[in-house]
Amino acid sequence: MAVEGFSVEVDNDPDRGGAAAVSGDGKGGGQAVTVTVAGDVDLAAADTLWSVLDEYVHAGAQVVVDCSRVAFLDSMGLRTLIRAQHKAGASGARLTLAAPSEAVLRVLQLAGVAELFVLDISGSGSGR
């Protein structure tokens, strides 16, 4: 289902022929999948984003969510990111929010949940 004003793309998916990226954290040298999110992450987009994150966040996975093009993040979008982070923690995956836009940072800070996430402010993939 297409959501106007929102898009999500997956790069480096080894199961779909994408080029694998080496993890920037130096732990295990596994493959990282980059999920690029753009536009408004709101009620209309939350289910679409969750379906993508749910597919890629699994045991041993390294998922980088590029948030540099997110223009708006509401409570349902935030809930989706928190849900993905909880799944990552429970399964031993690593979820990194890369290059979060001002909109994303503001919501994370206002909600008091920024510390739940590995944030890579520079977008280099290394995380904090």
Write up this protein.
With about 130 residues, this protein is α/β, with parallel strands linked by helices. It has helices at about 45-55, 75-90, 100-110, and strands spanning about 5-10, 20, 30-40, 60-75, 95-100, 120. Strands 1, 2, 3, 4, 5 and 6 form a six-stranded mixed beta sheet that branches. Strand 4, helix 2 (about 75-90) and strand 5 form a beta-alpha-beta unit. Helix 1 (about 45-55) packs parallel to helix 2.
Shape: globular
Radius of gyration: 13 Å
Largest sheet: 6 strands, mixed
Q: Low-confidence runs (pLDDT<50, min 5 residues)?
A: 17-29
Overall pLDDT score: 86
Q: Please identify the structural class as seen in this structure.
A: alpha/beta
Order of helices and strands: EEEHEHEHE
**β-sheet strand percentage:** 25-35%
Spatial gap, N to C terminus: 34 Å
The count of helical stretches stands at: 3
Fraction of residues in helix: 25-40%
Tell how many strands the DSSP assignment holds.
6
